[in-house]
Please model this.
Amino acid sequence: MATDAPTAPTAGAPLLAVDNVEVVYDRVALVLKGVSLAVAAGGITALLGGNGAGKTTTLKAISNLLRAERGEVTRGRITLAGADVARLTPAELVARGVVQVMEGRRCFEHLTIEENLLTGAYSRRDGAAAVRADLERVYGYFPRLRERRRAQAGYTSGGEQQMCAIGRALMARPTVVLLDEPSLGLAPQLVEEIFAIVARLNRAAGVSFLLAEQNTNIALRYAHEGYILESGRVVLEGPASALRANEDVKEFYLGLSSAGRRSFRDIKSYKRRKRWL
Model:
């Protein structure tokens, strides 16, 4: 399904900036190697790459969830609206407006959809009426969740759980949502629906998104900016429209070349090498 080209946010200082960050696991395994990226206020930034490229680690470095996996940021800065946030706890980051939607949805399976959504507002202190108003707003974005609000989350579909996870993040009133692999395990039609909702949230609510995604094709159609990771390094970056037109991106990430769609069944036909290696 085609979509209009996203309108780029106004240029200026980035809302979220990652500057030359290195991440080490178990004090020996260097996973991120000088990663730098920026998320504009009101922008959608795609973090692309294959499995194991470092996308999830980058998101967890920003949200400070690495310690649970014996990882740590050993170099670089992470700033939100110009303030260093690298030492804040995950709860403090949520209070500042940075919320991560984990890979695999991670809904509370024994709770209902509505109870899951309400857990997203646990840190708010603006009263029940404001929380209820935001709950209605989330149901407006995700009508299917309203229909399933009394259903136990563990018995809903993968698409409904992904909507629930995004809706739960919205209940915290975020300024930046870190969205990890939203297309994982979903049918193509549902993937389009999820990304269309992300674009709508970005336009209507002004929420900025940093989304890690292996599906390069759809991510670059909805994003404003893109970064491609390989082996813990940023190898390509730029406006999403420019990356879509890049011949290397077409061939190595979209399965296309100047001659059209390519089959790699015959390995001998695959002679081009990535220029950044």
Q: What stands out?
A: The radius of gyration is 19 Å. The CA atoms of residues 121 and 172 lie 5 Å apart.
